[in-house]
Structures are given as C-alpha cells and as structure tokens.
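User: Hello! My lab partner asked me to get a predicted holo structure for this protein. The small molecule is glutathione, SMILES included with the sequence. Please write out the structure tokens.
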Amino acid sequence: MKLYFASGSCGLATQIALREAGQTFDLVEVDFKTKQTVEGDYYQVTAKGFVPALKLDDGDVLTEGAVILQWVSDQNPDRGLLPAFGTKERYKALIWLNFIATDLHKNMAVMFSPVLDDATKASFAKANLINKFEYVDEHLAANDYLLGDRFSVADAYLYNVLSWPGRVGLDISGYASIQKFMARMEQRPTVQASLKAEGLID
Ligand SMILES: N[C@@H](CCC(=O)N[C@@H](CS)C(=O)NCC(=O)O)C(=O)O
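Assistant: Hello! Below are the structure tokens for the protein in complex with glutathione.
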C-alpha cells in the first residue's frame, strides 16, 4: 500500500491513522508545483491531483481524506479507530469527520490561497473560522478527544488541520483546550513518527 502525501498538508491524518492501525505502507511524496512524484506523473495516480491518495495493493486508489480514514479504520476494527458501523456513536464520529473536512479543512485552505490578499483573508477568517475554533475548543474543554476519552481517526484529522493556523498568521494560542489537545496528540508515538516522516520535526 502507498500513501501519496505532501509535507505539512492534509495527508498527515491518513499517515497517523495508518500507523495507529498498525498497517505497513510506503510513502510517496508529491510535488504540488509539478504534480510529479519519483514514480512520474501524479495525475496518473489520481486525476484530482490532490493528496491524500492511498494506492491499495490491488492497484485501486482511494481519495478523499475523510473517507480514507474510514477505510483504514474499518480494515483494522480491532484497533477501535472508529465506532462500529451502524451504531449511533459511528454517526457522531462521521459528523466530526464531515465538519472537519467541509468547515475546517476547506475554510483553512482559503487562508493559503495565493490569489487573496491578507485583508481579505483576515475578514474571511473572522467570518468563517473563528466561530469554528470556538466550537471545537468548547467541545474539547469537556472531552480529551472528539469522541470522549478515546482517540479516533477524527482526532488525527483535527490535529492535522489545526496545525495550520500558525502558518497563515492565525493565532489560536488563546484556545486553551485546543492547545491541550494538540499537546496530547503530540505525545502519541504515531504522531511523532508521522511528523518525522514528513520532515516536520527532527
Ligand atoms: N477533497 C479532498 C481535498 C484534499 C486537498 O485539499 N488536498 C490539498 C492539500 S491539503 C492538495 O492536494 N492540494 C493540491 C495543490 O494545492 O496543488 C480531501 O478532502 O481529501
């Protein structure tokens, strides 16, 4: 199995999930500018040109991070990375995955846009991100992880996306519960190994 990634982008959550699942995988880095990997044209892997993409051993390629996280969890049910199919807890997890993908991830992506000026980004963040950070912070004040006291792949995705604000000049240091969550996540060996593999820490 191969995980296509770009350092510091949204493939980090998949990598953490694969490690939490005890799955073996190879990493293939994608150059966003050229859309090349060591294997050649990344568009041959996925016509979307986006990471993450997970190429399975049978050659099938999965895309969409929130869906890949579910696949990884369901391949390794003994690891408890998501609640069981059909349970109410499962839907609560899916609510978080969807919220992170559509409200946090995609709104954060706007902050990296090369076509928007800083003032526009600041107004956008005020209107579309600050209230989301507050919502998450409030939830984490009462819960160590998104689903309560136990890690799930939704936490890997949240950690991934909440590692970006500082890179775009958004200060989230005032959200105490988010800060504690980030520190808690960074104690996980899988997070450390993933950050290292992406060259984000030594
Ligand atoms: N809908 C996709 C979006 C993935 C996505 O936005 N990937 C970004 C990195 S975080 C990307 O590959 N961008 C390519 C580029 O900017 O050239 C998902 O949720 O997985």
